[in-house]
């Protein structure tokens, strides 16, 4: 996973971007009561977006994500992310919601449509989980969008040579392998389907 995830980008090195595109997939839509936002792994996608906005690095935030597969009774993922941002003080006028995408390919297609129609020729920044950045980037590039990336939601820590890290097995390693394998299968399927 250390090899797969791109290096973090220091905040101080970030330029200004007119629009940050954030792919959803980090919240639980069916959890109740619905008076708050429940996050899964990868909440850094939206918390780092908030930090970038507060530091004056981004002007608009496009959040993309719908109901997902077979989640009819859930709220839309992009609406949940917008709710979090507004609770944190981001004005409604800054947030653009794309509430229909059900997967990474559709995130890219529908986000590209919004960018081309409402923010043509501007500077874009793609924000998603580090392990997911390669597939997300390839999908958005396939739509002809020129952008920079800001990986977030890291599953890894820095590499160490500690005895515990090198020798003692950890159950969490199985989860990381599962995530990595799923991402590789997703990349392969997206290539076959012509999404990337």
From TrEMBL:
DUF218 domain residues: 18-186
Highest taxon, organism lineage: Bacteria
InterPro entries: Cell_Envelope_Assoc (IPR051599), DUF218 (IPR003848), Rossmann-like_a/b/a_fold (IPR014729)
Transmembrane stretches, start-end: none
Name of the protein described by the UniProt record: DUF218 domain-containing protein
Taxonomic lineage from the root: Bacteria, Pseudomonadati, Bacteroidota, Cytophagia, Cytophagales
